[in-house]
Amino acid sequence: MVDARFVGHLQSLRLALTDPRFPAAAVPGALTAQPQARPALLRALDGQAAPAPGGARHGGVTAAGTVGTPHADGLASAGAGARRTGTLDGPRPAADGGPTIPAQPGEGRGRVPGPAGGADDDGAPAPSASPGATERGIGASETDAPVDDRLADEGAGAAPSRAASTPAEPGTDTLPDALAAALDAGDAPVQRPALGVLVAEVPDGPDARRAAEEAVAGVDEEAVRLRGAVKPRDGFFTTFAISPYSRYLARWCARRGLTPNQVTTASLVTALIAAACAATGTRAGFAAAGVLLLGSFVLDCTDGQLARYSLQYSTLGAWLDATFDRAKEYAYYAGLALGAARGGDDVWALALGAMVLQTVRHVVDFSFTEANHDAAANTSPTAALSGRLDRVGWTVWARRMIVLPIGERWALIAVLTAFTSPRVTLTVLLAGCALAACYTTGGRVLRSVTRRAHRTDRAARALADLADTGPLSGAVARLAGAGAVRGPLAPVLAALGAATVTGAALWAPLGSWWPVLAAAGYVVLAGLAVAAPLKGALDWLVPPLLRTAEYATVLVLAARSEVNGALPAAFGLVSAVAYHHYDTVYRIRGGTGAPPAWLVRATGGHDGRTLAVTVAAALLLGGTGQGFTLALTALAVVIAVAVLVESVRFWVSASAGGAPAVHDETGEPA
């Protein structure tokens, strides 16, 4: 729904009317409602309809109604005199990614030119869209909102049509703004995108209209759109070495009809080719791998920028982007290990160690974020100091670089791969990730102990889901019941359990049952740690401590076994389990909750898997030890099949079922 007097940029309307992430969105003079917000919109329309003699309370809206699922980059508009024409989900995007606008009667079909003019797909100059169209904005004749007639038929009555028939008086509130206020006051919050220098307003008279049109003409809309395609907060390498040109690659993709998911897939394929080049073990292969890894990262930045440039957000796309990032990096680690093995150097332990450390770092990030997602009184002296440092320019970039985000990390890996050896690459990577982990975890611990915050039931539930507690520790937690540990002891118990099982795996004789007994103690301690709601100041440490225990136990037992193939099998097992844990995070972030309980039971939980691996080591590490390799391989295959099948089924069905589109706009580097 767009007021007929609207003056502003097309990008303002794109942001308000074509972003599928929000049930309802608005800018001054324009409103859209996705299917989940339409009942509330109908109620708001009923409330706005008034039996005013000769007209309606709100004038100047030539049409109003449902907009369906908008085209990711299209914005249809009816011309002057049109009453109910077109929909927002119908038009095809123009060749330059700009909006297609139905022409006025007798003018033929055209589009609004870009900042430097425009042409049709065949290169001929495009006809003017309508008398009121400008190069960078639209006036009232272009904004008569295209609609679906069903809304008027489903309860709004004839109010929109009566409003359309009555000229608006200067100073009259617009119907879209009034409806947006009504939705906000009800149960359908309205997203209002930040417009910055973009214009979106409903002028009251000729002077105000001229001023608005001058403001529209004074802004380079395409430049604003390109800047908006880049995350406002990103790493140093990404901001200064990639985004200055990847945004233009994103626009190039948009003009050719490519989707973010296609670019994401291209990034994955490029990274897998890079891993294959590294696996050759030749100097040329390592050099090619480094170049291709950087190319994969450029495409990885481009897919998100394309989504923001063309507003093509989706649940499936967010999952693919996050999942493929992890798959690319860990596949590359495996490629380095395979390449080193061809040269007679075994670095599988380093590759697995890098994957374990990086995954635990991410779990720390996820747990801390979820624990404080909606905490009350979310302040601390440490956070205040961090805010003050952010106001000092160079410290911002120094602090972003020290955490070794994905851009810096991949650049480091690519350069070291091309000019050194896999062993040097992985050793430096481990040192850098360890330093980053100490910096971020230490800072978050300080924030937590100095912050007086009350954590919610939702945060406690998210931490419990991230813990991935299986049937064994779950039974211990239920037995603890009312006597469950509360206060600051939950992370202490988790740390004690992790130290017990990893210490036994590291120091006990190979093939002995001491690691099994330690794993049994770990099961009990982990169950006690999660028996009570995780609402303590440091309870967010419980999930990463449990991840450390499980992954490190597998790594240590495989490395100490010195059995041929044990470390690659352990790499596969940890990869499958890590995917399950990442999938849990993405479901929680998407608001869909944790994976189903049957999947957690079927995969054993962290406690069951840790105990199973120690039992396999005790039983099978005698003699050649090949049975241990086979056991790890079989466990990896079973878990991978179970979690992949369920994960793909869930995300595909969620996307097809109209789950809210999501996209990571936090700007926190991965």
From TrEMBL:
<feature type="region of interest" description="Disordered">
    <location>
        <begin position="48"/>
        <end position="175"/>
    </location>
</feature>
<feature type="compositionally biased region" description="Low complexity">
    <location>
        <begin position="48"/>
        <end position="90"/>
    </location>
</feature>
<keyword id="KW-0812">Transmembrane</keyword>
<keyword id="KW-1133">Transmembrane helix</keyword>
<feature type="compositionally biased region" description="Low complexity">
    <location>
        <begin position="124"/>
        <end position="133"/>
    </location>
</feature>
<dbReference type="Pfam" id="PF19365">
    <property type="entry name" value="DUF5941"/>
</dbReference>
<dbReference type="InterPro" id="IPR043130">
    <property type="entry name" value="CDP-OH_PTrfase_TM_dom"/>
</dbReference>
<feature type="transmembrane region" description="Helical">
    <location>
        <begin position="424"/>
        <end position="446"/>
    </location>
</feature>
<dbReference type="InterPro" id="IPR045985">
    <property type="entry name" value="DUF5941"/>
</dbReference>
<dbReference type="InterPro" id="IPR000462">
    <property type="entry name" value="CDP-OH_P_trans"/>
</dbReference>
<dbReference type="Pfam" id="PF01066">
    <property type="entry name" value="CDP-OH_P_transf"/>
</dbReference>
<keyword id="KW-0808">Transferase</keyword>
<protein>
    <submittedName>
        <fullName>DUF5941 domain-containing protein</fullName>
    </submittedName>
</protein>
<keyword id="KW-0472">Membrane</keyword>
<feature type="transmembrane region" description="Helical">
    <location>
        <begin position="513"/>
        <end position="534"/>
    </location>
</feature>
<comment type="similarity">
    <text>Belongs to the CDP-alcohol phosphatidyltransferase class-I family.</text>
</comment>
<feature type="domain" description="DUF5941">
    <location>
        <begin position="457"/>
        <end position="670"/>
    </location>
</feature>
<feature type="transmembrane region" description="Helical">
    <location>
        <begin position="611"/>
        <end position="644"/>
    </location>
</feature>
<dbReference type="InterPro" id="IPR048254">
    <property type="entry name" value="CDP_ALCOHOL_P_TRANSF_CS"/>
</dbReference>
